[in-house]
C-alpha cells in the first residue's frame, strides 16, 4: 500500500491510497454492503455508476450466513459479488460485542451464539483474520472489543489492554496468511483500531501504543455508540494527532453529513455508515437544503426531482411525486431510487470535500454545506 498526502487545509487531508484493487481518493465514504450487497436492490454496476470507490462488507454476517470458506472456494468476495474496486471488511468485533446477552469474552477470544440459529461460535483474533483472508478483501480490520458506553474506567483499561494483545496476534496471523500459496489476496492490508471510549488519556495512550505497531492504517472505533456529537469531536481532537499522519485514518460507523464534515476537519480520511441506505429505504432523502421525507403529502403533486441539478439515476429520470407513489405502493423501485440518490449524495459530497481541500477553501465549503444539510428541509419555492 502507498499512502500519499496531496494537499492539506488546516488538519483536513486530501490523499490517495494505492492498493492491489485500485486507488482510493480520500477523504472517502465507503458504501456499506453488509452481506456483499447494498440494501435496497443496488447492484455493483449501480455502485460504479454513482461513483463508489470502496465497498464495505461484514465479516460476521458473511461467516454465519453464506460462509467465508465457500466464498474463498468461489474465488473470493471480489469475484463473488462482481466488484473490481477496493473492499474493506470489518473484523466482526462490533457485531459480536453487540450480542451482549449471547457472548462471553475471554483472553483467547469471544464465545457466542449465532443470532440466526443459536449455534455456538468462537471468534478470536486468528479466526477473524482467517475469515477475512478467505474473503480476500483489500483491507482487513483487526479484532478488537468495542466496549459498552458508558462503562467504568477499570473496564475500559482492561478492555484496551486486551485489544492491544489481540492486535499483536492479528498482525502475526495476517502475516502468516498472506504468505500461504493459496491465499485469495496475498497483499491484504491490516488496520488497527483505537479504543478508549470517552476517556481522553486512555485514547491517547492506546493511539501511541498501536502507532508503534506499524499497521497499514488506523481506525478510531467505539464512537457513535451513544455519546454526544460534541464528545465524539472532543475525542477526535485529542486522538487523531497521536495516530500516524502518513497512514490512513478511519472513523468507524460515522455518520451524518455534518459528522463527516466535522471529522474531515479533524484529519479523518475514511468513513462508513448505514444512514444513507437505511434512510433511503424509509423514504428519507438528503439534499443540500435539508432532508426530505418523501412520504409527506406535500410531495404528492411535486413533479420536480428530489434535488434540482442532481445527476443521480433517480433525479435524472423521476419526480418526487412518482417516487412517493412507489413508496406508498410498497414498490421496491421507490426504495431503490432513494438509496441510489442518498449514496450519490454522499459520494458527491466527498468529491466536493476533496476539491475544497485542494483549493484551500475547506472552511468556507464546510460552513456553507453545514448550513444546507442541517435542520429541516427548506423548499426554495416557498
From TrEMBL:
Cofactor or coenzyme needed: Zn(2+)
Cofactor remark from the record: Binds 1 zinc ion per subunit.
Top class in the EC scheme: transferase
Binding site for substrate: 90-94, 144, 195, 222
Annotated binding of Zn(2+), by residue: 310, 312, 315, 341
The EC number(s) this enzyme carries: 2.4.2.29
Alphabetical UniProt keywords: Glycosyltransferase, Metal-binding, Queuosine biosynthesis, Transferase, tRNA processing, Zinc
SUPFAM superfamilies linked: tRNA-guanine transglycosylase
Pathway linked to the protein: tRNA modification; tRNA-queuosine biosynthesis
Active site: 90, 272
Pfam families: TGT (PF01702)
Organism domain of life: Bacteria
Family: Belongs to the queuine tRNA-ribosyltransferase family.
Main function: Catalyzes the base-exchange of a guanine (G) residue with the queuine precursor 7-aminomethyl-7-deazaguanine (PreQ1) at position 34 (anticodon wobble position) in tRNAs with GU(N) anticodons (tRNA-Asp, -Asn, -His and -Tyr). Catalysis occurs through a double-displacement mechanism. The nucleophile active site attacks the C1' of nucleotide 34 to detach the guanine base from the RNA, forming a covalent enzyme-RNA intermediate. The proton acceptor active site deprotonates the incoming PreQ1, allowing a nucleophilic attack on the C1' of the ribose to form the product.
Identification of the protein by name: Queuine tRNA-ribosyltransferase
Gene giving rise to this polypeptide: tgt
Amino acid at each position: 500500500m502507498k499512502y500519499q498526502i496531496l494537499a492539506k487545509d488546516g488538519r483536513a487531508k486530501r490523499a490517495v491510497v494505492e492498493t492491489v484493487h485500485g486507488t482510493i481518493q480520500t477523504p472517502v465514504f465507503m458504501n456499506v454492503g453488509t452481506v456483499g450487497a447494498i440494501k435496497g436492490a443496488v447492484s455493483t454496476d449501480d455502485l460504479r455508476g454513482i461513483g463508489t470507490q470502496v465497498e464495505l462488507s461484514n465479516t460476521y454476517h458473511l461467516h454465519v450466513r453464506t460462509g467465508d470458506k465457500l466464498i474463498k472456494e468461489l474465488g473470493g468476495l471480489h469475484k463473488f459479488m462482481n466488484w473490481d474496486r477496493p473492499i474493506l471488511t470489518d473484523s466482526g468485533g462490533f457485531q459480536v460485542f453487540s450480542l451482549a446477552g449471547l457472548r462471553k469474552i475471554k483472553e483467547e477470544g469471544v464465545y457466542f451464539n449465532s443470532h440466526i440459529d443459536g449455534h455456538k461460535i468462537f471468534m478470536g483474533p486468528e479466526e477473524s483474520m482467517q475469515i477475512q483472508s478467505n474473503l480476500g478483501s483489500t483491507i482487513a480490520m483487526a479484532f478488537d472489543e468495542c466496549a459498552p458506553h458508558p462503562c467504568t474506567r477499570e473496564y475500559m483499561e482492561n478492555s484496551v489492554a486486551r485489544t492491544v494483545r489481540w492486535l499483536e496476534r492479528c498482525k502475526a496471523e495476517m502475516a502468516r496468511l498472506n504468505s500461504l500459496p493459496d491465499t485469495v489476496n496475498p497483499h491484504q492490508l491490516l488496520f488497527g483500531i483505537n479504543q478508549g471510549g470517552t476517556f481522553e488519556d486512555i485514547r491517547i495512550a492506546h493511539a501511541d501504543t498501536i502507532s508503534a505497531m506499524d499497521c497499514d492504517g488506523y481506525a478510531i472505533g467505539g464512537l457513535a455508540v451513544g455519546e454526544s456529537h460534541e464528545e465524539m469531536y472532543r475525542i477526535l481532537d485529542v486522538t487523531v494527532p497521536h495516530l500516524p499522519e502518513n497512514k490512513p485514518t478511519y472513523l468507524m460507523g460515522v455518520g451524518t453529513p455534518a459528522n463527516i464534515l466535522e471529522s474531515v476537519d479533524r484529519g479523518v480520511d475514511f468513513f462508513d455508515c448505514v444512514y444513507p441506505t437505511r434512510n433511503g429505504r424509509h423514504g428519507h432523502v438528503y439534499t443540500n437544503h435539508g432532508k426530505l421525507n418523501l412520504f409527506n403529502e406535500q410531495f404528492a403533486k411535486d413533479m420536480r426531482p428530489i434535488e434540482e441539478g442532481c445527476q443521480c439515476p433517480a433525479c435524472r429520470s423521476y419526480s418526487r411525486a412518482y417516487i412517493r407513489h412507489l413508496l406508498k405502493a410498497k414498490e421496491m423501485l421507490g426504495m431503490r431510487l432513494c438509496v441510489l440518490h442518498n449514496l450519490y449524495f454522499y459520494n458527491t459530497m466527498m468529491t466536493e470535500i476533496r476539491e475544497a481541500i485542494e483549493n484551500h477553501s475547506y472552511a468556507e465549503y464546510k460552513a456553507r454545506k453545514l448550513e444546507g444539510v442541517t435542520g429541516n428541509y427548506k423548499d426554495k419555492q416557498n
